Amino acid sequence: MGFDLVLRNCRVADPFGTxxxxxxxxxxxxxxxxxxxxxxxxxxxxxxxxVVVPGAIDGxxxxxxxxxxxxxxxxxxxxxxxxxxxxxxxxxxDFVTPERGGSIVGAFEERLAxxxxxxxxxFGLHVCVLEWGPRVEAxxxxxxxxxxxxxxxxxxxxxxxxxxxxxxxLLRALSWASRAGVLVLCHCENEWIVxxxxxxxxxxxxxxxxxxxxxxPAVSEAEAVLRLGxxxxxxxxxxxxxxxxxxxxxxxxxxxxxxxxxxxVETCPHYLLLTKEVYSRPDGGLFVMxxxxxxxxxxxxxxxxxxxxxxDVVGSDHAPYASAHKLKSRDFRExxxxxQGTETIxxxxxxxxxxxxxxxxxxxxxxxxxxxxxxxxxxxxxxxxAVGADADIVLIDPERRVRLGKDVLHSxxxxxxxxxxxxxxxxxxxxxxxxxxxxxGEVTSRPGRGRYVHRATRAQxxx
Length: 463
Hints:
Layout: E1 2-14, E2 17-26, E3 29-34, E4 40-46, E5 51-54, E6 56-58, E7 66-68, E8 71-72, H1 77-86, E9 89-96, H2 104-118, E10 122-128, H3 134-147, E11 151-155, H4 167-180, E12 183-187, H5 191-205, H6 212-215, H7 218-235, E13 238-241, H8 247-258, E14 262-267, H9 269-273, H10 296-308, E15 313-314, H11 323-326, H12 345-354, H13 361-375, E16 393-403, E17 422-432, E18 435-439, E19 442-443
Parallel strand pairs: 1-4, 6-9, 9-10, 10-11, 11-12, 12-13, 13-14, 14-15
Antiparallel strand pairs: 1-2, 2-3, 5-16, 7-8, 16-17, 17-18, 18-19
């Protein structure tokens, strides 16, 4: 018996502990996990001194996203998936955003074709729901049943960009999601608080980016989280609060769970490492995203939430725009929102979390792969190093020190929001379905090798 690939001298980090083994890979799957493997292999990798973890799952990216006025994110599916793979991500989930009144299935097929042509790693697609009615429900049912879509996204803000869903439509969408076993992701900000506070800030001191955080206060996030929680408790739908930024939002999520909401919570690396003081810098526009960066106390609350299990997953919300767009004005109303991040999930969580004792190694694996796989309907195919699972495996050198500047990261973005930030512990080899796709900072895969993954509905995910 022979294997395509054998990993020797592995110290595997599992959601439930660590163990030593050797891993045999055949046909893109993990075929054997044993103390010793004597069979021959086409390639043998010595994992001595490395931490071996399941490939990370970034459930929140925006590649090839149009902002308006001909402006698009710096990364397409090729460069975005390249950056992800160099950061230890082996699966990402992007978004389909149909036009209001337009074909949802048509928008899905168009997005699927674009991702399939360029992606270097496996991927899924969420579908954004902007309105509700019989046609929308019918098209979503078609995608759930025939295309393996198991998640949708809604917005409680951005009415002026045409993204916000009204509460009545949201309630009907959640009721459908509960019946269909579909997860509902939600951008949680109270639109009316944001509009009111933006008006106040502009009247008092103008719209300089240094005042940006005040225009989207933490209470707007907390209110929307709690409102979503009440609607979840009424309908029974499972919901996921994306890019949680504040301690107030986290307390609202706990309150929502206390009234019966079936709520998951995601945060992002930038909310853990950066604070609102950056908005006062000359290049403050580079850091504009929504919700905005908060205080050091908020970041500490999020770290505590990661450790305690109050926060379930870490996604990147990767949506980078070139500095020419971000710095064209200091008026925060004119700056496109979004930053980079898919390549930094693993190194920042490992360095700032595991190495500094904020989270355990097992918790790290839960946050980056195991729980995302379960939440997004990818488990047991992905999310664990186990026989029968896809051979999505990452080797982390726990002593590798790296500065996260633009010359190191693989995004096409012309700057890094982490310039000067040094991490210790870095992914040095990424394997996707048994194929080495990134090694020592070099992309070794080809565009289009990534596969679209049909995902399970909530009832189909093993408990």
